[in-house]
Specification:
Layout: H1 4-14, E1 20-25, E2 37-42, H2 47-60, E3 64-67, E4 73-75, E5 80-86, E6 93-96, E7 99-103, H3 108-117, E8 120-121, H4 133-138, E9 142-143, E10 146-147, E11 152-158, E12 164-168, H5 181-184, E13 187-194, E14 196-197, H6 200-217, E15 224-227, H7 237-243, E16 250-251, E17 254-256, E18 263-266, H8 272-290, E19 299-301
Parallel strand pairs: 2-5, 3-5, 4-19
Antiparallel strand pairs: 1-2, 6-7, 7-13, 8-14, 9-10, 11-12, 11-13, 15-18, 16-17, 17-18
């Protein structure tokens, strides 16, 4: 563990004691219910606190990891050293005309619902995406033909040095399930979405339809990381996995979902290692059978468990 009492003291000077947890189990904070412990799990309440924590990590050479709401993520069984930062307490959503401003820790689902209430159209596609706003920008999240880059106007980020920057959407290199946010070490604090005026009933009808599709097709009854693989050009990942006769395949407590082959569910107290082993097994099998390389959409972080 990165010790230590000194780091704890510094963190609690920056933010309240209630916002700094030591040896926190990360499986409590991920959709897969997987993951070892974080040395320090910190939930700041202001932009300035985020900046100060980044500067502390730089000054004292403390490893530093951003955790969104843990929806598109696998944390390994050995956990994460240093500081794990979660912005769940920065979650305000406001609207001004056809613009919606949402803080990083807000759920993108809630932003789409806020837009509905304000009769604003453009974010309907996001009504079933479980991630946070920060996570949605990080990976240019999308569903049902829409994606974040379609509606994003700008973002406020903290740089690796702890400085605040406001960036236009086109400065984030938003591509299919990717952005330059991880490469640049940005921490997203806030996003501004540009929407259009619409009709409440029409917007709601689209959202209800997409919600029905999601709930009827996706295995929401078990913990999972969502869609595991990116869509390979010319194919559907779920169909390739299904045609490889892998539906129901299980390693330990991790299983290829019987409801949607593109999902791996934590059916019975799986370890992260079992989950990751199953991902590798799927990739190997599909490559051998169809010659198609499945690329992960889900992010894997942390350390292996040392026996």
């Amino acid at each position: 563990m990165v010790n230590d009492h000194h780091t704890y003291e510094k963190l609690t000077e920056i933010t309240a004691v209630k916002n700094v947890m030591v040896d926190e189990h990360l499986k409590n904070h991920t959709y897969t219910r997987l993951g070892g412990k974080a040395d320090f799990y910190v939930t700041p309440e202001t932009y300035e606190q985020v900046q100060q924590i980044v500067k502390l990590a730089n000054k004292d050479n403390i490893p530093f990891t951003m955790l969104g709401n843990g929806s598109n993520l696998i944390v390994k069984d050995g956990g994460i050293r240093g500081i794990v930062l979660n912005l769940q307490k920065l979650a305000s959503i406001t609207a001004d005309g056809t613009t919606v401003i949402a803080q990083s820790g807000a759920r993108i689902i809630d932003v789409s619902r806020h837009a509905l209430v304000k009769k604003l159209t453009g974010l309907e596609f996001a009504c079933g995406i479980p991630g946070s706003v920060g996570g949605a920008l990080f990976m240019n999240a999308g569903a049902y033909g829409g994606e974040i880059r379609d509606v994003l106007e700008s973002a406020v980020v903290v740089t690796r040095d702890g400085d605040l920057l406001t960036l236009a959407a086109n400065q984030l290199d938003l591509e299919y399930r990717s952005s330059n946010i991880p490469d640049n070490g940005y921490i997203v604090l806030e996003a501004t979405f540009s929407l259009q005026n619409g009709n409440y009933d029409e917007i709601k009808a689209v959202m209800d339809d997409l919600t029905f599709k999601r709930e009827s097709k996706q295995p929401l009854e078990y913990p999972s990381c969502g869609s595991v693989f990116k869509r390979p050009p010319g194919y559907f990942a779920g169909k390739l996995i299904q045609d490889s006769n892998l539906q129901g395949k299980q390693i330990g407590g991790a299983q290829v979902s019987l409801k949607h082959a593109g999902f791996i569910v934590n059916k019975d107290h799986a370890s992260a290692k079992q989950y990751i082993d199953l991902i590798h097994f799927i990739q190997k099998t599909v490559k051998e059978k169809f010659g198609v390389k499945l690329e992960r959409e889900v992010k894997i972080i942390g350390e292996d468990l040392v026996e």
